[in-house]
Amino acid sequence: MTTWTEFVTAAPTISEVFARRHAAAGSLAMLGTLRADGFPRVSPVEPRVFEGELWLSGMPGTRKFDDLRRDPRFTLHTATVDSRVTEGDAKIWGTVHDVRDPELHQRFAEALYEEIGLDLRGREFGFFPAADILGGSSVRVGGGHMDVTVWRAGGTEEVVRKH
């Protein structure tokens, strides 16, 4: 299991691009899951980093969370709006696990309220998926080339330069 904190240490380039693009997109990312029929589903989500973990939080009762309960594999991509990718983009992939910890849920709810004003304080959380990051990649364009940085759990970042 690789937490967000461990990912930042192991994959500093990818995590920096992901965090920067995630913030620039207003915390929006695109979540890839597998539907019950095996087809892919892509859904908007606003993941949050909290207490060293990446949480795939969102509106309860949505199909994307049904998908993750059934098959915990996911891909998370920064919301790219520039076809030239001048600001870069990043994606991570892995699995999720459901965290049942009412005290953690309430700390998360308090932080969410302070950050964006959404008040979930005092509510019981259902499915609360934390990401176990297994890999990631990022793209940076500039100087007449594109650098693709790739990382897999247990390894180091590798860069492929394309001209």
- Looking across the biggest beta sheet, what order are the strands in? 2-1-5-6-7-8-9
Give the helix proportion (percent range).
25-40%
Shape: globular
Question: Kindly state the mean pLDDT as a whole number?
Answer: 94
End-to-end CA span: 35 Å
**How is the biggest beta sheet arranged?**
7 strands, antiparallel
Radius of gyration: 16 Å
Give the low-confidence spans.
none
Provide structural commentary.
It is a single chain. By secondary structure, the protein is of the alpha+beta class. Helices cover 26% and strands 37% of the residues. The chain has a 7-stranded antiparallel sheet with strand order 2-1-5-6-7-8-9. A two-stranded antiparallel sheet has the order 3-4. Strand 7 and strand 8 form a beta hairpin.
Which key features would you list for this structure?
two-stranded antiparallel ribbon; seven-stranded antiparallel β-sheet; globular; alpha+beta; 163 residues; single chain
